[in-house]
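Cont'd.
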Amino acid sequence: MLDLSDSQLELAREIIENSIRSRIRKAGAEGGVVAMSGGLDSSLVAKLASEALGKRLLALLMPEDGVTRPEDTVHARAWAEELGIEYRLVEIGEALRPLEAAFKGMKKGDKGRRLVAWGNVKPKVRMVLNYMVANLESRIVIGTSNKTEMLLGYTTKYGDGGVDIQPIGDLYKTQVRQLARYLGLPRPILEKAPSAGLWPGQKSEEELGGTFEELDSILYLIVERGYSTREAALELGKDLAFVRRIYERVRVNEHKRKTPTITRLTAMCLDKDWRYPVERE
Amino acid sequence: MVRTVRIGLAQIEPGQGDVEGNAERILRHVKRARREKVDLLLTPELALIGYGCGDIFLDKVEENEEALQRITEKVRGFYAVIGHVEEDEEGSLYNAAALVRDGKVLGRYRKANLANYRLFDEWRYFKPGNVCPVFETGFGKIGITICEDLWHPEPARAMAFRGALLIACISASPYDWGKEGLWDAFLRERVHDNLVFMAFANQAGCQDGATYWGGSKILSPRGEILAEARLVGEDFVAADLDLGEVARVRRRDLRLRDVRRPILEELLRAYEEREDAGPQR
């Protein structure tokens, strides 16, 4: 079920917090770093990680002047202060400027493509800053992607996808909202319209072509319950073409959920034959 | 006749491939079992090597056997079941449980129903066992099953036919929604099928994002819960069992006595006839 009971939400909290602590301990890291945007996903992860790590958690607030909604930064800062975690504010505009010059020199691509290509640079810059701090201070980079966006490929490869762990990556977006409400996240964060924040006015649901309730109900039936697209459309009373379009996104974005494909030459190809755990004592 | 026996469940979190560390963890529980006057101590599936350790199974077979012998030396005055990897003379590996006492391995059970779906990949490493023995102890016959075995009615049934009063199930069950309810149902089914005590010892902790959910428990032949460990984290619980209960229940519930040979033969014929038999055949 997409709707989780309070006891399930409590168990999810315990499992997620334990998984964060477990990774940090086994990696021998000093702590974790999480990028906080002021949105729902990263605010929830900050809450869970702060409960798991206490003072060992650092939040990076990395707005881009003129693009990031000012209230998002206000919300992120207020929430970090309420959680009592250390946070640092790094405006990324300055880091973007030399890249912007290079980008302008590249003439290819129509307007839509250019918007996306440049938009994707920003999460990658944030990823660079995350890892810079992580390397300097022996931290694990904690991701904030949810299952809905990972399935739909609504993530930037090596951007927000460039992290060490994804603690809420097995929760659908509507479940993220349930857990956030259960854990008492502030109302403005719970109620704001989801946005990737890559360009001004960007709205996730407009871009994806459906509300997260719709998208999750479709994905849930197909992924968790084994429905065909036709069966899911029938069950939910949705247009088959719409359901197919959603599932097509899942299919073509498999590459974002995997490590890079290695061309196999030995009997011990590292992404195919070799199976060792990441976490070891 | 009242035949009291004390069963202890060591719900430990093994390190992946950390045989030395796991032997220490088990030995701490051996000490505790001695302190708490336990007659039989159960450890989780593959507790010596760590269930989710992937190809490390292949690397640490000898080390794991040596550690088993070391632990066996320390188990004095009571019985213990230790999850480990067993290797036969031909180099085949088994997901196994050893019954040990007073410096001796008294017997071993090889998991009969290997799990090989979703995140499970046991056929990659292990051969299945094909026998369902019972082991004679000072307090009566016991059967040992391993995790997936309990999701099938046959191994426990065979052990009940052979006179087991108590069936242990050592396990490394990773959490997903509803898993605790599913396991509770399977444990109860085996209890009510076979009119035996069931003792379930599950692994704890998180390994590479999979949470072994704990919840170890002991059920009476009437389905009463005699001991139950916490979810997710490490724990140790024990309970006193009156094994005389088995006879008392079976005097009035004759189903085990009345299992009919023609129907068992029919079951086997039906099994041979079916076309969708899996590779475990």
